[in-house]
Design brief:
Largest sheet: none
Order of helices and strands: HHHHHHHH
Number of strands: 0
Number of domains: 1
Distance between the termini: 64 Å
Helix content: over 70%
Shape: globular
Strand content: under 5%
Radius of gyration: 18 Å
Structural class: mainly alpha
Length: 234
């Protein structure tokens, strides 16, 4: 039986978005109420296991269905780099990898969740893997933030921007050498996305760089406000 086409903001899509938000917040609430360090650590490791397991499942799908190619195998999408940062932080919480996971997940992976480059709806395995992978990254970041109380710092901004340009250069080089499309630097997604509102190729690449910096500032803004309020109360 043929898989049903993906429906943007359909029941399955909205359910995936809701679970991505509610599950980590609920687990973070439990971890903070119980105040049990081993439990909080175990949940963090469970997120890492989810991401690694989903990546293994995706690789199995690639090889079992004959989809192996540079485009499907190389971890060169920004979401892949965000996943690696989230796995590292979930296993060994630290500031440097956390801030990369935080900004790349919320500024990049979240956009992929809202307007996914996906052709098939639930229960197609591609739908399940896509949302488990992308949603798992965001969920792990939310859990690390609200349960382990990690947060970005002012110094995080230049570091993340610098690493983002490293990614841009690396993805661009791989795209040019292998004729692939990581980071959507050679073409916009086939499915509808915010990139459709940008200029034609290659001009939208510069716009993406600017939007990336703006997104980093936007996702730091809540912490800036919190710090200002705390300073006034001190």
């Amino acid at each position: 039986m043929a898989s049903a086409p993906f429906v943007l903001f359909g029941p399955a899509h909205l359910s995936a978005l809701a679970l991505t938000l509610l599950v980590p917040l609920a687990l973070a609430g439990i971890a903070r109420v119980v105040d049990d360090a081993p439990l909080a650590r175990a949940i963090s490791l469970a997120f890492a296991a989810l991401l690694v397991g989903t990546w293994i499942l995706w690789l199995w799908m690639i090889f079992s269905r004959g989809w192996a190619s540079a485009q499907t195998l190389l971890p060169m999408h920004l979401c892949d780099w965000a996943t690696i940062a989230a796995i590292v932080t979930s296993i060994r919480p630290n500031q440097k990898s956390y801030e990369l996971a935080y900004f790349w997940a919320l500024a990049g992976t979240l956009q992929a969740m809202i307007t996914p480059d996906l052709a098939y709806d639930f229960p197609d395995l591609r739908f399940v893997v896509f949302f488990a992978f992308h949603g798992g990254v965001i969920a792990s970041v939310l859990y690390l933030t609200f349960a382990l109380r990690l947060r970005p710092l002012p110094a995080s901004i230049p570091r993340v921007v610098a690493w983002s340009f490293v990614y841009l250069a690396a993805a661009g080089a791989v795209d040019w050498l292998l004729k692939v499309n990581f980071g959507y630097l050679r073409a916009k997604p086939a499915q509808a996305s915010l990139l459709d509102a940008l200029a034609p190729w290659p001009w939208y690449i510069a716009e993406l760089a600017v939007l990336g910096i703006v997104s980093v500032l936007i996702w730091y803004m809540p912490w800036f406000i919190v710090d200002r309020i705390g300073a006034r109360r001190a």
